[in-house]
Amino acid sequence: MIDMKYFRNLAYIMKHKWRILKICWKEKLFWQGIIHDWSKFHPIEFIPYANRFFSNRSLTPIQEQQWQKALLHHYQKNKHHWNHWVVDQKEKKAIRIPEKYIVEMVCDWRAMNPADPDDSKQWYQKKQHKMILDPESRKLLEKILEI
User: Which pLDDT score is estimated for 136?
Assistant: First the structure.
């Protein structure tokens, strides 16, 4: 019997991808709207995400390590995450993010709460101190968010 956590994870991904598709297409990011978060279907990500978010159990140490690996894989495979562009965490250095990925990143944040577009602005304001962005990327991001 297949654990329901996998079906719940699949349903979550599909709902998110539908929201992203609609939001990205409004921004003329047609291809990005289609391929957004495609890596979440890969077993390296799919299983640990299901275990972390859709299981009623605490993660075992091995599952926690798999989750960390899944998250790293996700950032490495998806250019709409600011983490993808960090070249030196210790020195807090990142390279410039192309505009289309900054726009997709904002679309991703807006998809978290599509009923309230300002929610993404508030979310950014709470998290910005943790984000390693080059100055030009941050400037463009804040312009898009109207900050």
Answer: 97
Tokens describing residue 105: 């990143």
| 54 CB-side CA count, 13 A | 16
Distances (CA, A) of 126 to 29, 42, 120, 122: 27, 31, 10, 6
Separation of alpha carbons 27 and 8, rounded Å:
29
Is the model's pLDDT at 117 over the cut of 70? Answer: no
**What residues are paired with 88 via a beta bridge?**
93
Give the residue with greater pLDDT, 71 vs 115: 71
In whole angstroms, what is the distance from residue 63 CA to residue 94 CA? 30
φ, ψ for residue 93, nearest 5 deg: -115, 140
CB-facing half-sphere around the CA of 39: CA atoms within 13 A: 16
Supply 38's token pair: 């495609």
Candidates 1, 83, 75, 85; CA nearest to 40 is: 75
pLDDT in tens, 101-113: 999 999 999 998 7
